[in-house]
Amino acid sequence: MRLKDKVAIVTGGSMGIGEAICLAYGREGAKVAVVNRTRETGEAVARKITDAGGAARAFPCDVSKKAEVDAMVGGVTDAFGTVDILVGNAGIMINKPAEEYTEDDWDRTLDINLKGNFLLSQAVIPIMKKKKYGKIVFMASIAGTHAFPNALPYCASKGGVVMITKALAAEIAKDGINVNCISPGNTATPLNQHLQDDPEFVKLMQSYTPTGRAYISVEEMAGAAVFLASDEASAVHGHDMIVDDGWCAM
Ligand SMILES: NC(=O)c1ccc[n+]([C@@H]2O[C@H](COP(=O)([O-])OP(=O)(O)OC[C@H]3O[C@@H](n4cnc5c(N)ncnc54)[C@H](OP(=O)(O)O)[C@@H]3O)[C@@H](O)[C@H]2O)c1
Hints:
Largest sheet: 7 strands, parallel
Oligomer: single chain
Number of strands: 7
Bound molecules: NADP nicotinamide-adenine-dinucleotide phosphate
Mean pLDDT: 97
């Protein structure tokens, strides 16, 4: 087991990529704090882990609100004793032409996708610094470094995630904390169900991807998250790990 007895917070853990990461961390021996806003869905994922013999609990929290983030991290340390791993994965995407976004669309996207990871980092860094050990993994996107139309706030937020990864790594690598991010390519989750149902989009993705696949599985994304949270990645700092079936290479 590569994460035996490590305490891991996984935001957006109730479905999609986050759920797959929670389940993989549970299998690798971590104690998993499943974080999202909807209590029942987070509890369902925690139950899958405990039913399989692992340790997990749901901690409902809106990552865009500092008071909720601080209370959640306090709850995790009360329940599990510490925090070793933070996966800042919660995210939303709103697709529209640039001129049609409302101020609220922009604020919500940036608050959840970018500010949330800042707030989470602030809450866990003191715990990690004290023991000179920690792993922080943010979920960025290939949209943080490659342009996608009709996704202006999303692209801006993910570019910010790539940059806070590097800025934080530069600041706290010396404290024994690894900060990295993953940039997924097109991964089949509830976030993009509407696109999975669109045969034209599927054909387009297949033609642009060297593997010929339109979608990566959530389990393939979880593999990268296990590696970056493990001691096998002890010398990896400030890295944007692109897991995209080769899409960016094309
Ligand atoms: N799927 C892809 O192709 C793809 C590609 C590149 C990057 N990504 C990134 O990967 C991450 C996961 O994506 P996904 O496709 O797995 O998304 P998803 O299936 O839509 O799941 C999103 C998760 O985030 C939680 N969440 C949303 N807002 C939250 C908030 N304010 N506070 C706490 N939790 C919140 C949701 O639960 P609640 O609604 O109950 O809170 C849910 O657990 C995102 O950051 C996304 O941008 C995905």
